[in-house]
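Caspase family p20 domain-containing protein, pasting as requested.
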Amino acid sequence: MVFVAVGAGQADLRGQSHVALVIGSDAYPGEAALRHARQDAAQVAARLRALHYAVVFLENPKRRDILRALAVIQAMATEAEQVVIYLSGHGGMWAGESYYVPVDAVAEGGRPLRGAMALPMQTFAKVLSDRPRQKIIFFDACRSPESWAQDAPPSPHMGDTWGAGLALVYAAAPGTMAYDGGKGRSPFATAFLRHVTPMSPDLPTLLRQIRRDVLSQTQGVQVPWMQSALLVQTYVQKLPGS
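Structure tokens follow.
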């Protein structure tokens, strides 16, 4: 696992108004290996840095590394007004909840998946919900039930609070696949990098642009999805004066 602060050291997260955690995982064992997720995430991290985020980037982290990075973000970005998390790699969906799959959640040979090692979206969302702020999580991973899962991960407590100001942006609709891409990048990462620029519109409009782009790339098969509890007009960039 490589833990990289892009454009800033860890200490530089303090006092920053816009902070991002970007994770790219493709070095899964055996047939579970992906082609583009780590490079996709690296390009997303560079783009967010160009948009004036203090960015922490993880390459092929294990479960404990992700949890440690979330603790760093929570402890050192207490003054941040907006936090973005971008997840690229394997995912799945169990009991209506989407899960991100660390590289050590897959056994040698590529299967079976050790479901209890997968991380639910609530794990990421709750870390950012310790104080009022805008929180955006981009999930470039599958949301289909994995038929090769050995055991389902523990279900989150249904009574848990996700927090106001949260937007969950998924590369695919519930129960469907997000494609790794034939050449270069995944369809979602390609659309993200095309439309997330210094001139990009507010988040709901941005997602419509990304959705149309992904639909075009996949001949209508993959449909990006969003759940939102945003409170204010939100942009994936640091606007002047913010």
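Note for the archive: Helices lie at 37-50, 63-76, 121-128, 187-195, 203-217.
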